[in-house]
Amino acid sequence: MEKQEANKKGAIQPMPKVLVSCRGLDGEDNALVVGYCGNCSYAPPMVMIGIVPTRYSYDMIKKSGCFVVNIVDKRYKETFDFLGKYSKRDCNKLADMKVNLEDGKVVNAPILSDCPVNIECTVVDSIMTGSHEMFIGKVEYVHADSNLVDEEGNIDFTKIAFI
Predict the structure, then answer these.
(1) Total domain count for the chain?
(2) Which residue, of 55, 57, 76, 153, is most buried by count of CB atoms within 10 Å of its CB?
(3) pLDDT per residue over 72-81, tens digit each?
């Protein structure tokens, strides 16, 4: 098979669509689409998310030191698209889409309870990588729909209808 040069931006695909939710020190909640997200350690479990510093949620995460990664499935596509299209600077997007929120069990950030998996994280480090600041989050608690979890507590990701 002949090879040709491809676009460098987003070269590792596909990956699950995620919404990152956060809470400001003033109690304000928000959620945004994050394109850069992945595991970065299994002992201890850690994930990383990349956020452009001009995003509304950036300062909320930077100051609060926590966030929640919410994995999205096809049932949530309309909400995902809306939350990715609009900034909280322009509208109260969580209220506009009637997003169901619950407080995290460990971190002071909301989970999007209609998403099948929610991963509560505490920021342990960050690094600027050009356009994004990569926040490294220690996984504190994982919520998963009960039909996705096996007897050993593992999530069966094949049961999620990803977007």
Answers:
(1) 1
(2) 57
(3) 999 999 999 9
